[in-house]
Amino acid sequence: MAEVILLLGGNLGNREQNLSLAMAKIELYVGAITAKSSIYESEAWGFEDNNRFLNQVIKVKTELKPQELLDILLKIEESMGRIRTGKPSARTIDLDILFYDNLKIKTDTLTIPHPRISQRLFTLLPLSEITNNKVLPVLNTTAQELLKHCSDKSEIHLYNC
Fold it and tell me: What is the CATH classification number for the domain harbouring 136?
């Protein structure tokens, strides 16, 4: 059984409901959620949009292999109305694989650990909550240490549900 860490986010529609629905689908098709961070609200990163994002990081136990996991996550996104345009844009849901056990993978369709973990506050803040100052797989540092060196100055705060 593998442990994976996923980032969930979205800025269209009922954002809270979309996070909840995505987690329900993940539990149904991927595996048991064993930990989840608080929800954070942030401005769009990498493109201009007035709709703010909600983001959350979860840990999941799964029997799926990495590519199978990616395929299922893409199907979940599609079932929730995600439309991929080929460039950063607003979305109902985005599901990113941050880590898959201690694996390092780089293929045409999948890179693990996620290549932009250290660049994004909306990833690092919830990740630091659920990793409890543990050394991150492959990166050999903690989320807290990455936060100290993160150049992202985006506005982000805990979301009050």
Answer: 3.30.70.560
pLDDT in tens, 85-109: 777 678 899 999 999 999 999 999 9
Burial readout 129-145 (b: 16 or more C-beta within 10 A, e: otherwise) = bbbeeeebbeeeebbeb
Q: What is the pTM of this model?
A: 0.94
Q: What is the mean pLDDT of residues 36-65?
A: 90
- 155 by Cβ neighbours in 10 Å (0-12 / 13-18 / 19+) ranks as exposed
Count of the separate structural domains present in the chain:
1
40 is in which domain, residue-wise?
2-158
